[in-house]
Amino acid sequence: MISKITRGVRSVLLSFFFCLLFVTLSFAGLADQVFEKILDNGLKVLLVENHKAPVITFQVWYRVGSRNEQWGRTGLSHMLEHMMFKGSKKFSAQEFTRLIAENGGNDNAFTSEDFTAYFENISSDKAQVLIDLESDRMHNLVLRNEDFQTERMVVMEERRMRTEDDPQAFLMEQVQATAFQTSPYHWPTIGWKEDIERFTLADLKSYYSTYYNPVNAIVVVVGDFRKEDLLPRIEKGFGGIPRGVAPEQKKDVDQPQSGERRVFAKREAELPYIVMAYHVPNLQSPDSYVLEVLEALLSTGKSSRLYQSLVQEKQLALSVDADNSLLSRDPSLFTLTAQPLSEKDVTEVEKALNEEIERIRAKPVGLQELEKAKNQLEAAFVYGQASLFYQGMLLAQYEIARDWRNVDEYLPSIRKVTPEDIRRVADLYLTPENRTVGRLIPLPPKEGKPAPAEPSASGRMIR
Amino acid sequence: MIYRIANPARRAAASKVRITFILVILVVLWIAPVRAGSMPRVERIVLPNNLVVLVSEEHSLPFVVFQMLMDAGSRLDPAGKEGLANLTAKGLLLGTSTQNANAINEALDFMGASLNTSAGQDYAVVGLQVLKKDLEKGVDLFIDSLTNPVFPEQEIQKEKKKILGAIQAADEQPMSLAEKSFRKTLFPESPYGHPVEGTRESVSGLSKEDTSRFYQTFYRPNKAILAIVGDITVEEVRAKVIPLFAKWPASQVETGPINATYSKGSQTVKISRQITQANIILGNIGVRRDNPDYYSLSVMNYILGGGGFGSRLTEEIRVKRGLAYSVASFFDAEKYQGSFQIVMQTKNPSARESIALVLKEMERIQKEPVSDENLRRAKAYLTGSFPLRIDTQSKLAGFMAQVEYYGLGLDYPEKYPSLINSVSGQDVLRVAKTYLFPEQVILVIVGNLKEAGMESPSSTP
After folding, report:
1. Which residues from A are below 8 Å from B359, CB to CB?
2. What is the pTM of this model?
3. Is the Cβ pair B301, A106 closer than 8 Å?
4. What ipTM does this complex have?
């Protein structure tokens, strides 16, 4: 039973998606609990004491993700993330793994368009070992060609699993590449297959020296520690690392879209899938908070508009979702997705999605319904606080998108939203001209039925 | 454990349920003279109707989690009615004698509360998460759904359609397909052999009457465990919550041991899909949760393939050879039966090589004693990572309920470190020999069989 948790990528992934559902939810007063210290070398340290359980989450965030990559070298951020586990000057890869595990810690890392993050969740008395490990790999990473060649194969497997063999993810990649033309959000974080095959150890070395520096990093620790004790240790561990040069972070963004775009993907799949993606602003614009409420109105809970209409009443879809991108560093997408039931025409599903969008553009929502959406957002952030990991992640994401202090603007901004705001913002962004529509066209499996189980003659597998 | 997440934000989750109850399995309880601040305190109360209530106060955030385990999982599905436990669990939220599904959903959403039901193989779970200020209303909805469901015909039909759609959608995921096939092959006659959600055929045949009957039989307080964690006191539970549950009538229920048959001897199932990877499950019969070797198996499995980057399978297959992004082993120990599985995906042409490596590691741990160092590390991780298993209200509630369900005893948390620490190298060797069957594995592979060189039905991999 214990190992169900470690069973595979799916469960880990889901828990991350789950976290990200919450990511747009901040909580009142979180910023008040943050102690910030910028070390002399530019490293930003954010500490939040929380003594409810004897554990901490220790996180190191680098302001580098696929948006920092170049055409022809996409996926480099994520590749480097993998290489960060291959050993540094003081600790070999095996020692790294061993030290975390024998101290009862769980560690992992993840990469997005905007950031690369490393974390360990561990008993609160084990902070020192994390400081030793993370500070060493911040500037003493050992990049060996042999490790790189093997790990590149692992990343190729990862791409196969996540994208090539997952029809919905494949379609999403196509939608993103169609919606963004100028912005580096055009390419997938894991990188194009050809680029993963192309980039070199020299690319990784140069990327590491450009982006993995104190001046481009944030250390976030949340949990059961005393900052009087922890901060001096962090200063000692990380303070001696040379500052580095703050990398150029300004990236091109797309011009306003001038007409609907459509993209189709034909893959072996059981059911169709539809995505409608609209360009929207991020938290730099007050409209982004209105879009948060809009997301809740459309798809949070079984009484939400899309669920009621498409799943309950019309019974067209198995599932529906709306998703805003509040915390992206550059403006990103507001997406609606639906998985049609098998016998339903995907055109009908698109029409039903459209009707809901047009309805919300045409007529202000009722006060009761608006209140419900706000209550949902507020409750969700209270629940979200239960996870120290999530608290740390939220602060870091705010910091990377803008400033961690903005976390406290979230609830008041949500509370201010009026029915007219919803109508205006929907009418401004959720227009056909501003969207990319993607459709998955399922191809039936070549062999639909499992072959019957066969006892093998020898009773023995060949190696 | 160590799986890198690429691009986590980009893919929208399939359905939006803001709050999920994360079931964390196996753990350790607390109670007892607790080291300052390390283990949460738990109060256990047994009602006259034999409902067991477990309470742990956690006042740092203004919300409360309820988690009820009902001994009403899919192992109790009648033959031909596979999926009934699942439909019944879902049916709880489709309307009660006093309010319909829409009214329930509106009320929950307006509070930002979540009320979820799901079925597993052993038990069903009814979970509530609600803000402290809405506690009373939330508990009313929870109890009403649990004790007065009416399973309206029209809603049941809709729910069946959704389940059928979900079954179809899951067939698109190669690993889900492999998992179903593995269970079916390992447990051809056992109630653990069919998918919890049932099959297309069986679900189509389920009726409102079936759900009502299943509910009347199995949803009883004497077969339930209620865990409550959060911003509520034991006194409040006694005064406000328990009286409501006390009215729920008990009834004799037969949910005893099952006919635990399983397949012996090796079998291979191949399913062809036009995909780039072979999705592989390789395994054999496992153990029941009450098997005394469970702890030796935990240590052995950690070393073999349960320990992420520290494990042999990850080292050999991923780290040394780059053949897979993930490879992991686990014992899935249910109440009356269990399985052992190794799960991985690799590009089709590497399937045979990867399978051979897995078998080699299974044999190695049966032949060579593990080093003292390996043993020490495994124990250190298993005991040291304990606090992470109960570090949120939801995790703790799930943990408490499971400890009770599997009869691990109130002193389980105290016992756990010694249960693990008493495992010897000889124990590891012995359980590896006893419970791993590399020469008689069930192998399921979903992938492009031609590319994998496994196309011919007569070829063994």
Report:
1. 461, 463
2. 0.91
3. no
4. 0.90
